[in-house]
Write a structure and sequence with these properties.
130 residues, alpha+beta, 5 strands
Length: 130
């Protein structure tokens, strides 16, 4: 199964974030890492890499993540709650990873993914060996 990468915008700022406090995106990244650490190695988190990135340019819809995998559609999701979205995101990524093309049927997507989709980007080919 190809690796799935979850990019988490660490510069996303919620309206209620204090200027000197950790930003909502950084808190979401921490929550995702904590949730993965508590899961068994054999579940859908296997084959998932989580990376913090600076700015996905969806500032009006914090918190924002992007999910990508070779030969699958890439999705960008916004409006995610940093305190309560980690489990939902990881469950949705398990469904994504189980598909051949990254397209999870609409009704099978978590509500946060159905409402929060910002973009869907066509697949890019896997790098060739050699």
């Amino acid at each position: 199964m190809p690796e799935t990468v979850l990019y988490v915008c660490t510069t996303c700022r919620a309206a209620e974030d204090a200027p000197d406090a950790p930003r909502a995106g950084a808190r979401l990244l921490d929550a995702l890492r904590a949730e993965i650490a508590g899961r068994p190695e054999t579940d859908a988190a296997a084959g998932l890499r989580i990376e913090g990135v600076e700015c996905l340019s969806v500032c009006k819809r914090p918190c924002t993540v992007a999910v990508a995998s070779p030969d699958r559609w890439t999705y960008v999701y916004g409006d995610l709650d940093p305190a309560s979205s980690a489990r939902t995101i990881l469950d949705g990524l398990g469904r994504y990873a189980a598909t051949a093309d990254g397209i999870v049927p609409w009704r099978e997507r978590p509500e946060a993914f159905r409402k929060g989709v910002v973009a869907r980007i066509p697949p890019f080919p896997a790098p060739s060996a050699g």
